[in-house]
Amino acid sequence: MAAKSIISRPVYGTLSPQPGKHHLFVADAEGAVAIIEMAKNVPAGFFGGAEIVFIPGPDGKHVGALEALKPAQFHLAASFASLLPRLKQTLTNAHMGLRLYLSGTEGLIGQAMQVALEAGIDHTSMQTEHRGSLARRMQCVHCKGITENVTTQPATCAHCGLLLLVRDHYSRRLAAFQGVCINAEDRSEIPPMEEIFR
Amino acid sequence: MGITFRKETFRDDFTFRNSPEHIRRFPFPFHEDSYMYAVNIEPHVVGPKGSVLENLIDVDEHYVAEMQDRALVLAEDPLRCQSLPHMTLAGWDLLELLMEQQALGYPEHFTLTRDGDRWRWINRPLGIDDTFTFGDTSTLPYGPMEYITRQSQGDFCILDQRDGNLWMDAGMVTTQADWSLDFDIGMNFFEWHAPVPLAHEKGIFIRALKFLTNIQQGKPARRLNWTMTINPRLDTSPENYHKWGPDRSTVTPENVGDKVHLRVELQSFWRLPRSNGIVFPIRCYLIKMDELVTQPKWARRLHRVIRDLPEELATYKGLTRYRPTLVEWLSKLDDGSPTSPGFGPD
Amino acid sequence: MSTGTTKLDVVVSNVVPVNELVTRFHFRRRDGELLPTFSGGAHVVVEMRDGDRTRLNPYSLMGSPLDTREYTISVRRDDVGRGGSLFMHRSVKPGLEMVISYPVNLFSLDLRARKHLMLAGGIGITPFMAQTSQLAGSGGNFELHYTCRTASLGTYADVLQQRYDRRVRLYHDDLDERIELDRLLSSQPLGTHLYVCGPAGMINWVRDRAAALGWPAETVHFEHFAAPQPGAPFDVTLAVTGKTIRVGSQQSLLEAIEAAGVDPPYLCRGGVCGQCETNVVSHDGKFIHNDHWLSEEDHRSGCKIMPCVSRFEGKSLVLER
Q: What would the mean pLDDT of B153-178 be, rounded to a whole number?
């Protein structure tokens, strides 16, 4: 993470069990480790009221360890897009007392949070823990297109092709960092591209 | 008699000008020869006749042209006007406030007649005469916030107050100084101010928030902010930065007076009665250097402020590229003599 | 600049006994104009001139925010309080000219809510009278659960049931009817916000159960204006103005400061808004904190006091006023 950042840059914590009747976990790849770590400190029977939705990384790790927690429901998803209908349905039918735990990449946390915000959960009541890649979702402020998995500074917009400065300024509503044209004042200035979000 | 509205543009051929009376009433933002952030908030009460504070919602000779420019921006990019679903009631609050204030200050141009919730609004400069039911969105051509802010100078941010913070949950923003409503909507007070340098460390936003969350109905407050813009362009949005950014490289010693504009925001803060929200009108005033330096005190003072501005602020305000040229040009108008205290011209 | 509110000159237009404990007061503007619009949950501070004594008490506005020809408040008679409610019941008659503050809302609806769940106890019903009117006028989704001692003390219960039918549920203490709170809280759709107004014990109970059942703090809203409690008289030195004052047994510290000609800002006078927060320069004795504003840590530190509702017992107290 950048040494000096700004207030709109999300701050992630460490998952901890919350009071509540139902517990919904959404995690990808190394985010599983956050759940497994937290499971060491939960009250007995905690996972009996829990649902875990997990998107494994390319290495397929952690599936067995999560299943071993014996959640009431366990679902493996191929991608965030594929789990979206299920997540929306769960939230639509949920009651107050449902607690949400998000862990893994920033893109996953942001997108799951976006859906939960729309369902009426306040962002401050969600538990989050960042694990894994620092690649960013970026909204191009000019064409509004979202570019996934941005690892460089500056980065090229996948939609309009402008060269963008990837700012720390972050929108929960869009689940994205802001990208602003880096050489708008003189297009002949092409700063070197460095890989910094890994 | 009423205001004579100018026919002018804020794009392409840039025919925007201030009349001599409007130069005199320009809200010059520096009360001393240097500038630093401060919580410079004061009660928003009516000021002297002939000033921009003569009415709490100011309408001036640029009204019609600004509204035409807003319509062009919205046609290109409707995302400049957004309201999260829970903000409709606050939109009605704003409609009431702006109709009341404009009709009160400028009866020759605006008339509001109410019969219970049956309201009639006449806006003569824009040729509008609408009758609608207050509170019933289906009786207006747009949502209440969009309807009235298409007829009111300045940008408008509507803030929801909850959990001890203010949340930017609605707005009409087409004349902004380089920030994006589409990106910032839904953020809290600290988050949307996050990119501003220096002020967080000084605790300025904590104090400002405490003040703003305590604004009471019937007691609005105000502050001035400023930046600079090349050409009299209202729409200096980040969305279009790649279109207007190159203007900053076009400043030469020969064209400073015509191209460089001081851009002053008169920000006011009002408690909204039904929604308990806060509205934050940001009224933008532009003046080109040639017009500004007709007041010798302003010329001397602006020279000193721009020359001594901390580098972070100059960068944040986007002055870096043309600051030397501007300072050099202004220095010729600064004989080093003292300036009188206060904002106004001598 | 001062953060207080603007004042309104009003005349009492009607006084209506509601039941053996509660009386309703109607105010209109003396100049005949409309009163300022307000939002459900707002209160006004009523100035009561009782001989040489002035009391300022907050009361929730209970009329519809859609009708600002008059404001209405309901006052429950408190025979052992400091006398504000007794003054209202005994001395305020139609035609009396009074001064009230502009409305201030420290208990506003969260308009994002998918549903508003309201719990009222006793006279705590008043802010909900305005909030339900506001929500009903805009098609809002709400449900009100109202606990009262007996049917005859169920202030406005009949009106509310008539207006909102099954959206209002009544519980009578004398019939041993109780809210099944856990079941109620666990059956609410995601995105519900909870509002509670009533006696302190009820508010604490509801907040505790809501927290235990997983309701995030930002979804739980409560209003409890602490009434200033009577107590032993005590002396205070005001360091800034160099005055020494005595706080009478029936007087609040804030009232005593005001009587000495010093005017701290205030909005609620009930320990909620934080405006009159005052630094303690030194003290030798014990604080009796009654506010909901300062943190427990602040209370323990002995460095701050809310003079609207809190008192002091001991040898000396010096305040930064």
A: 93
Q: Which residue of A has its CA nearest to C114?
A: A120
Asked whether the ipTM of the predicted complex exceeds the cut of 0.85, the reply is yes
Phi-psi category of residue B53: left, alpha or beta, with phi > 0 → left and psi -120 to 50 → alpha: alpha
Domain co-membership, C94 together with C147:
no
CATH class of A22-130: alpha beta
Least Cα separation, residue C91 to chain B (angstroms): 30
Residue C274 lies in a domain: yes
Model-wide pTM > 0.95: no
pLDDT in the model for residue A84: 96
Q: Parallel, antiparallel, or unpaired: how do β-strands B42-43 and B110-115 relate?
A: unpaired
pLDDT score of B130: 98
Question: Could you tell me if residue C228 is inside a domain?
Answer: no
With tokens 């002035």, the residue in question is C54
Give contacts of A174 with chain B, Cβ < 8 Å. Answer: 183
Q: Which two tokens stand for residue C173?
A: 């203490």
Give me the pLDDT at residue B39, please.
Answer: 64
Residues A96-127 have pLDDT tens digits of 999 999 999 999 999 999 999 999 999 999 99
Question: Across the interface, which of A18, A120, A124 has its CB nearest the CB of C190?
Answer: A120
Instruction: Show residues of chain B in contact with C36, CB under 8 Å.
Output: 217-218, 273
Same domain, C98 and C119: no
Contact list in B for residue A186 (CB cut-off 8 A) is 246, 249
- Report pLDDT digits (tens) over A83-98: 999 999 999 999 999 9
Percent of chain A clearing pLDDT 70 (strictly above): 98
Sequence ranges of the domains in chain B: 20-331
CB C38 within 8 A of CB C103: yes
Distance from the Cα of B85 to chain C's closest Cα (Å) equals: 8
Domain ranges (residues) in chain A: 22-130, 136-195
Check whether B38 has a pLDDT greater than 80. Answer: no
Cβ–Cβ gap A185/B246 under 8 Å: yes
- Give the structural domain span for C101: 7-105
Residues in chain C within 8 Å Cβ distance of B214:
3, 267, 273, 275
Determine whether the interchain pair B187/A8 forms a contact, defined as Cβ–Cβ distance below 8 Å.
Answer: yes
The residue annotated as part of the active site, out of B17, B223, B307, B321, is B223
Domain at C201, CATH number: 3.40.50.80
Last residue of a domain, one of C64, C85, C105: C105
Give how many domains chain C has, as a whole number. 3
State whether C119 and C101 are in the same domain: no
**In which band, very low, low, confident or very high, does the pLDDT at A9 lie, cut at 50, 70 and 90?**
confident
Does C2 map to a domain?
Answer: no
Task: Tell me if C1 is assigned to some domain.
Answer: no
Q: CB contact, 8 Å: C275 with chain B? A: yes
